[in-house]
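[job 4417] fold queue: 2 targets
>>> target A
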Amino acid sequence: RALVNRVWAHYFGRGIIDPPDNLSAFNPATHPELLKELSEGFIKNKYDLRWLHRTIVNSRTYQQANTPAKGAEADRTHYAFFPLRRLPAEVMLDALNYATGTSENMDMQYHYWPEKMTTVQVPFIPKNAFVTHVLETYGRPQRNSAVQCDCERDSGGSIFHVLTLANHPRVWEKIKEPNGRVAKLLKATGDEASKIDELFLATVSRLPTAAERETCLQFLKDADTLEKGYQGVLWSLLNTREFLVQH
């Protein structure tokens, strides 16, 4: 029950028993039948964490829209809508790498780490200065001998988050990477509209609206070069709340 409750809290920002570390008779579950069913399923599947995560994220509750119905704006207890939350540090950096078509060398070969790893795979802070900066700025737990709990994660917002994506030189290097997404788009066949569609799918996981597509196409026409135009569109998408927030 404790583990099921904590995993649920990870995805929804509050536990079925909330706060998640206060399991007592004086703090009952808001949905005891749900907690019971998930706990029994977890035991039946031999405490398989993958089963637990898969079951929760495939649920209708997790897949609800983030726009609440009228009158339910403050209803967090009954999960009337999906709560907006910032991407965790590791996920955000991996999303940035995917969107720009780049990767990071963690510079940990002397610890026998592979040269290329996703950020969610790294066991602790690597030597790569940019990765270290992002993980620390976006609040990943230190995972050292003194701090070994994911409850130490800082999920709040900060001006440093905005400045990192907007101004950090490494972000622009990724956007301009010779083998990155923009460079490949420039070499690919197809019209500008389909390439704009790809940038939207790679960043915010949806196609642009007609108005957004028209605005981006006009931006490409007004840019000094087509390359700078695509770079500007990608930079703009990376700096939207839609990219930074899970919704």
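>>> target B
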Amino acid sequence: MPLPSTIHIRLDILGGIAGDMFIAAVLDAWPELADDALEAIRAAGVPAAIKIALAEHRDDVLVGKRFSVDEPHDGGHSAHVRFLDIVRRLREAPLDPCVRERALAIFGLLAQAEAGVHGVAVDDVTFHELGAWDSIADIVGAACILEALRPVTW
């Protein structure tokens, strides 16, 4: 469905929202954006061994979409990934420039928050959970969707 020339989207969330929830909710409303979002996620370097799925969901209360990124786990913890390595990876990825810049801006805000909490320079930030492929998929997918919905306001 084409977007109206002016639209304002209000997310009325209590306690925050995860990237997978955002992606699922928006793709439930605009399913035609799904292929581009999934393509951007793969372009960001998410390996083919990692299963990415957008599926119908129904439980006793709600119906909608569910977005998932399933990484194979070896029982250990994810390695720490340097913020600068994520920046390099995204800069080298064949992403639409606007999607790349939005994803980098999101990671930049997270790196600033981490730097403040840990008392280190932004360039010295390492991510544990945020360096995992599921976080990269969530952020790049969300960035792609945000760019596709322009000029909406939030």
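[job 4417] complete. Note on B: The first strand starts at residue 51 and ends at 58.
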